[in-house]
């Protein structure tokens, strides 16, 4: 089996699974309980928070544990709207965001908020000039993803931050789910990023656990109210086993991170070079994009047909975003990049992780050549 669908989810690292099981079996106390079992659980919780914060270069009180990327995006956007709605009702995002962002924005539009959707160029990147023109006195939030989940385009987060330094009252949210461990992420005071969203199952951690960075002093309303966990901002008994396992996965992710990134980039470049030899192949991912995502199309063959054909030979890829792949609709990201509809419906995504190898890429191209010939004969 060759697994090239890592942007949908990664295989949980065996040592992370072992950590999860160990904590589940041995540290079963509620971190909010007053007895020693609760104290033990809370100690492990705070230890994990410190480890995540240290790796990300922030303070422990700026890390909040969530259920994953979708909750984080919803909380950042709706929490800002609830908290700051009395000061303004204008939000800015891009036309190529994850559904968790787009649908949150759409929901707020029904509540009377106004959303500006920034266009992108043919590489899927926003215009900084368009952002400058979109900012208004009643703007309360700018939400831009760091790395696009479908084509891997990298947005100019640092440059956006520089622009927003002139707008200190505007919250800046970054969906960093596809960026963590793949590109440099700066959450320091100079970066101007106020809110950032992360999900463990994208870096060999468990599903159902993630974390948010919320810069100290920035206020967003809680979406979950109740027992006052997570400093009163995200109630609900903590998923301790998931949190501890995620912190371990994060530590493993950043061990030799640059070496891992370079390995993935070399595989991506090898695949791209091999695919571009075919006249009916269009590659949508930029060479300067994220090292792990390669989106392309074999013209005339619908994406889902190609995905299942690859599956039959033991290779697993996807049709762009996993969150919308079953709908069998064309990619909204490719549409925003001005890719024609008939070509966008043929798009598929190969997404890598540090455990993938060049040998797997070579085998992929061997099987691709066979399928391309079969489809050519059919047509």
Automatic annotation (TrEMBL):
Which keywords accompany this UniProt record? Answer: Aminotransferase, Iron, Iron-sulfur, Lyase, Metal-binding, Pyridoxal phosphate, Transferase
Organism, as annotated? Carnobacterium maltaromaticum LMA28
Name of the gene:
csd3
SUPFAM superfamilies (UniProt xref): PLP-dependent transferases
Which EC class heads this enzyme's classification? Answer: lyase
The Aminotransferase class V domain covers 2-364
What protein name does the entry list?
A: Aminotransferase class-V family protein
Say if the entry is tagged with keyword Transferase: yes
EC id:
4.4.1.-
* Classification lineage: Bacteria, Bacillati, Bacillota, Bacilli, Lactobacillales
Molecular functions per Gene Ontology: cysteine desulfurase activity; iron-sulfur cluster binding; lyase activity; metal ion binding; transaminase activity
The question of whether Lyase is a record keyword is answered with: yes
Record-stated family: Belongs to the class-V pyridoxal-phosphate-dependent aminotransferase family. NifS/IscS subfamily.
Name the needed cofactors. Answer: pyridoxal 5'-phosphate
Q: Which domain of life is it from?
A: Bacteria
InterPro entries associated with the record: Aminotrans_V_dom (IPR000192), Aminotrans_V_PyrdxlP_BS (IPR020578), Cysteine_dSase (IPR016454), PyrdxlP-dep_Trfase (IPR015424), PyrdxlP-dep_Trfase_major (IPR015421), PyrdxlP-dep_Trfase_small (IPR015422)
């Amino acid at each position: 089996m060759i697994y090239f669908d890592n942007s949908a989810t990664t295989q949980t690292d065996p040592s992370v699974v072992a950590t999860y099981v160990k904590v589940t079996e041995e540290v079963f106390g509620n971190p909010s309980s007053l007895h020693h079992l609760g104290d033990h659980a809370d100690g492990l919780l705070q230890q994990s928070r410190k480890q995540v914060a240290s790796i990300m270069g922030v303070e422990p009180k700026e890390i909040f544990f969530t259920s994953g990327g979708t909750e984080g995006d919803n909380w950042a956007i709706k929490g800002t709207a609830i908290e700051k709605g009395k000061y303004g009702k204008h939000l800015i995002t891009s036309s190529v965001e994850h559904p968790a962002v787009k649908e949150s924005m759409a929901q707020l539009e029904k509540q009377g908020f106004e959303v500006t959707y920034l266009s992108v160029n043919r590489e899927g990147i926003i215009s900084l000039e368009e952002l400058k023109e979109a900012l208004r006195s009643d703007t309360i939030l700018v939400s831009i993803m760091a790395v696009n989940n479908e084509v891997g385009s990298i947005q100019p987060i640092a440059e956006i931050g520089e622009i927003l330094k002139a707008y200190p009252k505007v919250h800046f949210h970054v969906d960093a789910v596809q960026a963590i461990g793949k590109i440099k992420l700066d959450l320091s005071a100079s970066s101007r990023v106020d809110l950032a969203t992360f999900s463990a199952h994208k870096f060999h951690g468990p599903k159902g656990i993630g974390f948010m960075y919320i810069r100290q002093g920035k206020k967003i309303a809680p979406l979950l109210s109740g027992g006052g966990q997570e400093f009163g901002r995200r109630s609900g008994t903590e998923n301790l086993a998931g949190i501890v396992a995620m912190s371990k996965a994060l530590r493993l992710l950043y061990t030799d991170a640059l070496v891992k990134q370079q390995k993935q980039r070399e595989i991506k470049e090898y695949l791209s070079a091999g695919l571009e030899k075919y006249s009916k192949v269009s590659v949508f991912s930029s060479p300067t994009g994220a090292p792990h995502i390669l989106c392309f199309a074999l013209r005339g063959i619908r994406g889902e047909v190609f995905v299942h054909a690859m599956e039959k030979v033991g290779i697993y890829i996807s049709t762009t975003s996993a969150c919308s792949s079953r709908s069998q609709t064309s990619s909204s990201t490719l549409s925003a990049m001005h890719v024609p509809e008939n070509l966008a419906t043929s798009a598929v995504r190969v997404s890598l992780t540090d455990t993938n190898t060049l040998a797997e890429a070579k085998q992929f191209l061997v099987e691709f050549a066979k399928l391309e010939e079969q489809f050519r004969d059919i047509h």
